[in-house]
Amino acid sequence: MTSPYEKAPRSAATALGAEAHDLHANGQLSLYHLPRRRRKPLIVKAVGPNGQPLVLMAKTAKTLLALVGAAENGITAGEVDSWAFRLAHYIMVLRRTYKLSIPMEREEHAEGRHGRYFLRSDVTIITILRD
User: Fold this and answer.
1) Among candidates 77, 110, 78, which has minimal Cα distance to 91?
2) Which residues are CB-neighbours of 80 under 8 A, at least 6 positions away?
3) What is the mean pLDDT of residues 106-114?
4) Helix 58-70 crosses helix 87-96 at what angle (to 10 degrees)?
């Protein structure tokens, strides 16, 4: 005997015009979530101070690339707010885990003040890839 729910979509989904796209573990169709392609993380391989090898991933890698690209101008959270909502955390990881020198200088602006971060350690980017 077949289940009465096997072919019948949920009423709320039907009312919204949703279509079935994905299977749950129990074989039921998910009416709301489309399958997503898994994003490949950004991986940066670099050489840090004293020749130490650095392998960074995801947002920490992107932060290092932003610092290297900004050179003497430095970066602020406002300049990278489209992807770095936690810039201070990524800077902390670069400082503590990878022992990079990244000082912060406070700057005044119309709404108050913010910190600008500068990369002072010698870092050479070797490869940038997505795994």
Assistant:
1) 77
2) 63, 66, 87
3) 85
4) 90
pLDDT digits (tens, 9 = 90+) for 54-77: 999 989 999 999 999 998 999 988
Return the SS3 of 30.
strand
Q: Which spans in 1-131 are helix H?
A: 11-16, 58-70, 87-96
Secondary structure E strands in the chain: 22-23, 29-30, 42-47, 53-57, 75-76, 104-109, 112-117, 124-130
Q: In what order do the strands lie in the sheet with 124-130?
A: 53-57, 42-47, 124-130
- The residues, ordered by sequence, that sit 6+ positions from 103 with a Cβ below 8 Å of its Cβ are 117, 118, 120
Tokens of 108: 């005044």
pTM score over 0.90: no
Residue-wise pLDDT for 42-54, tens only, equals 999 999 888 889 9
Q: Give the angle 70-75-101 at the CA atoms, nearest 5°.
A: 85
